[in-house]
Amino acid sequence: MELTEKSRKWFIATLLLGTFTMSISQSSLSTAYPTFMKYFNLPASTIAWLTTGFMLIMSVVMPLSPWLMKNFRFKPLYLTLLINFVIGTLIIIWAPNFLIMMVGRLMEGFSVGVLFPSYQSIILEITPTDHRGSVMGTVGLVMGSALAVGPIISGVLLQFFPWEAIFAFFLIVLTVVFLLALKTVISPLKIESTKFDFISVFMSLGIIGLLYFINEISHMTPTTTYLNWGILIVSLILLFMFVRRQLKMPQPLLRLDILSITNFDLGVALTSLSYMSLITVTIIMPLYYQQILGLTPLWSGLALVPAAAILSWLNRRSGRLADRIGFKPVIMIGFGLFIVGWAALLLFSSLNSIWIAVICSIIIESGNAFAMMPATTLGANSLTNDLIPHGSSIISTIRQIMGSTAIVIATVVLGNKNFNAVFLTFLILEIIAIVLVFKIKDTKKEPANA
Fold first, then answer.
1. How far is CA 84 from the centre of its chain?
2. Which end of the chain is more exposed for a tag (fewer CB within 10 A), N or C?
3. What is the pLDDT of residue 448?
């Protein structure tokens, strides 16, 4: 089925609305932790599994996305993911206890984990190469703004309604998305039946163990240290076996060999390094506002709004700029802004000025607008269309792992309010990243020999 320009825009808009809502669900619950602790009479470490469990299941199903897209038509797959998320959300709303709530949360994470790589693959597939910059700029707007506004939306809802209102919001929006999808979403990819590799799926569980270890580093105790290190060793062995199997199989679950394509591997590295700065600034700055500047949780959340708004405004413009002048100069601007923002925080944080902190946050998040999705798109342009689902899955999985790693690095370095050490760490990280920008090739399309 051929898409007209109007139907293509509706298709993309429906995908992005669903993805935006699911993205909010990833970041919105941290604001509600105190409410959940009181409601279920559980400690923060247990409540945190609402986010940790979501992230773990999301990460482990991401590598399944290429196989699902190859073996199932996209429209039924997308509708099924929406239904699964809605059922999970209803389970959460009606959950009589925390364990049942976790079941619903894991169902949500499954849908998000499959959808994140697949929707990017579909959008790249139906978008002409010379328009991918602006369209993927819109994708970046969705991803970046959802991460930033999730805690804000949940904070506002909790001011007036019980915690169930957060999930009711997801439910209402995704019901609308489902109805829109019935009319606007099509299945643009050819279906090819391939064998499901259960052994590879089992080996990919090492991703869960790796992310679990990363999340536990900052609060390991003598009684859990040996267990956590054991989990890490087993996970690394499983991941080694997974990688080896994918490289040897004629039809692997995930085409890891495409990481040998020069532009693609640099695109993966740069989009991950960009995401690390974005997720760090959205987590560290509220703490800075509260612990150093003495703001309330509500005002520390609202202080994130200007940066989130600028990020959203710049994403589409950076994509259009990349289509006009090339991706490499735009990515260079992005990492230059990262360096300026982190350096300014390091130099001026002693002034304890809310305005300086907000401006620096704006500069850093603006850097993400110019760096993350342009790097993703430039990397994807080095792949043939049949490899794009594998590329999107690899990018999403590695970005998730690196985002979790960034949180741990920031938390460990922060220690007892050592914010300058955090600013310096990420300044050094982005200086290293800009070296990689010089190596990436600015090209619309590179032939892939994979």
1. 20
2. N
3. 41
d(CA 272, CA 397): 10
In this structure, the dihedral spanned by the alpha carbons of residues 38, 27, 220 and 238, taken in order and rounded to 10 degrees, is 130
Q: Taking CA 410 as the corner, what is the angle to CA 404 and CA 411, rounded to the nearest 5 degrees?
A: 90
Give, in degrees to the nearest 5, the angle at Cα 17 between 126 and 107. 105
Token pair in block for residue 250: 């004629």
Q: How many residues does the chain have?
A: 450
- Specify the pLDDT at position 249: 82
Contact 308, 146 (CB under 8 A): no
Spatial separation of the C-alpha atoms in residues 290 and 332, rounded to whole Å: 33
Say which residue the tokens 């290190």 belong to: 229
**Alpha carbon distance 321, 408 (integer Å):** 34
User: CB of 205 within 8 A of CB of 211?
Assistant: no
Q: What is the dihedral of CA 23, 110, 273, 354, to 10 degrees?
A: 30
Tell me the CA distances in angstroms from 4 to 9, 123, 126, one per residue in order: 9, 14, 11
Q: pTM of the full predicted structure? A: 0.75
Rg value, the chain, Cα: 21
Q: How far apart are alpha carbons 281 and 304 in whole angstroms?
A: 9
The whole-number average pLDDT for the span 44-52 is 75
Measured between alpha carbons, how far is 98 from 92 in angstroms, rounded to an integer?
A: 9
**Are the CB atoms for 370 and 333 separated by under 8 Å?**
yes
Q: Is the pLDDT of residue 48 over 50?
A: yes
One-character DSSP codes across 155-220: HHHHHHS-THHHHHHHHHHHHHHHHHHHHH----SPP------HHHHHHTTHHHHHHHHHHHGGG-
In the chain, where are the structural domains located?
5-194+251-439, 195-250
Tell the CATH superfamily of the 5-194+251-439 domain. Answer: MFS general substrate transporter like domains (1.20.1250.20)
Give the mean pLDDT of the chain.
81
